[in-house]
């Protein structure tokens, strides 16, 4: 018997080549939907002079439609997951090249303080709403932090710190995945409904949309200025995750005594609190501010980021099962929805109180 046949465990671990090839089916599916979405936008531009529905939104809707009619089988899943996460994170990183850090300084202390206050108020209000609806303490904290900071990333970071049970984490993340897509699709309606300027809408998106990549998707229809402001506000909001986790770690012993059967709390490293693509975004923004990225490179970088974002939105749509809403429970649905409405109200109040134009 040869060494190859006598060592099945060696064959069970795929090599880098096999892993890369495993991404191909899902990537091809996402690229096909991307082509359809960009083709649809090009058709709109040819017929009407401008797109009424951006390729980003079309890609999400196509992905959701495909997912509703057909659940992608195992060969497609790695590539879809890679497109929805890593590809979109690269797009966000590239966006940093178009933003000067002078914009951050120009935002002033009032806006920065307002962002911090919005996060704190939202966490408090969301916890009260969740508890009033009868949700357990840990579930309330997961929903509150997910809404107030950065959706799934905040839930995943907070869960081990407070010792949350896996079923609560799964329910919170499942609902956040669906509601995050609905936010990307529905938030632009506030531009005409609330009479928001591109700058005001960017602040609103940065304060309310769950993930940094989703802010990119939600603000592209409003223009580059809105995207830059929204990303800046969102980055400050994400950085609140560190202080929040520190505070929760101090409260963790009390939370463990308050419930039974939950996992023990644990600590997270720096890379869990500050994702790599945020560091990449800030690095490229710094290089741009120092004049180390030439103006001629901005156009190609922006176009690449846009293409990658559309592909990732297709993947995001493919990962959304709208029927999950019926499975997470009425109380969780009500808690997350009401918390999000409170966040939107607080954000609009901040925009108008600061006189943001």
From TrEMBL:
Query: Where does the sequence pass through the membrane?
Result: 21-43, 49-66, 87-105, 111-133, 140-163, 169-191, 203-223, 235-252, 273-293, 305-325, 332-354
Its predominant location is membrane
Q: How does it sit in the membrane?
A: Multi-pass membrane protein
Q: What is this protein called?
A: YeiH family putative sulfate export transporter
Organism this protein belongs to: Methylobacterium planeticum
Q: Which domain of life is it from?
A: Bacteria
Coiled-coil portions: none
Q: Where in the cell is it found?
A: Cell membrane
Q: Give a Gene Ontology cellular component term annotated to this protein.
A: plasma membrane
The text of the family note is: Belongs to the UPF0324 family.
Q: Which InterPro entries match?
A: UPF0324_pro
**Keyword set for this entry?**
Cell membrane, Membrane, Transmembrane, Transmembrane helix
């Amino acid at each position: 018997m040869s060494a190859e046949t006598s060592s099945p465990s060696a064959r069970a671990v795929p090599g880098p080549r096999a892993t890369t090839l495993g991404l191909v089916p899902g990537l091809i599916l996402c690229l096909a939907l991307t082509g359809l979405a960009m083709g649809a936008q090009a058709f709109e531009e040819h017929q009407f002079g401008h797109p009424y529905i951006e390729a980003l939104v079309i890609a999400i809707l196509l992905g959701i439609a495909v997912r509703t009619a057909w659940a992608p089988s195992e060969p497609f899943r790695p590539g879809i997951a890679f497109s929805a996460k890593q590809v979109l994170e690269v797009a966000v990183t590239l966006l940093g090249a178009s933003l000067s850090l002078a914009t951050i300084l120009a935002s002033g202390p009032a806006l920065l303080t307002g962002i911090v206050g919005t996060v704190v108020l939202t966490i408090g209000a969301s916890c009260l709403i969740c508890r009033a609806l009868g949700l357990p303490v840990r579930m309330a904290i997961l929903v509150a932090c997910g809404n107030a900071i950065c959706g799934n990333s905040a839930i995943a970071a907070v869960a081990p710190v407070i010792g949350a049970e896996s079923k609560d984490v799964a329910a919170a993340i499942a609902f956040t995945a669906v509601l995050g897509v609905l936010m990307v699709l529905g938030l632009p309606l506030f531009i005409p409904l609330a009479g928001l300027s591109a700058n005001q809408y960017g602040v609103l998106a940065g304060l309310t949309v769950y993930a940094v990549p989703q802010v990119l998707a939600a603000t592209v229809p409003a223009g580059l200025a809105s995207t830059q402001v929204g990303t800046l506000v969102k980055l400050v909001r994400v950085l609140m995750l560190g202080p929040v986790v520190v505070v929760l770690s101090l409260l963790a012993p009390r939370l463990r005594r308050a419930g039974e059967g939950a996992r023990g709390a644990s600590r997270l490293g720096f890379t869990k609190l500050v994702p790599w693509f945020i560091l990449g975004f800030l690095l490229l923004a710094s290089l741009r501010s120092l004049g180390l990225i030439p103006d001629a490179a901005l156009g190609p970088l922006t176009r690449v980021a846009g293409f990658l974002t559309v592909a990732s939105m297709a993947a995001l749509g493919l990962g959304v099962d709208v029927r999950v809403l019926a499975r997470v429970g009425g109380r969780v649905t009500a808690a997350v929805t009401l918390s999000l409405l409170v966040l939107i109200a607080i954000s609009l109040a901040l925009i108008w109180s600061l006189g943001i134009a």
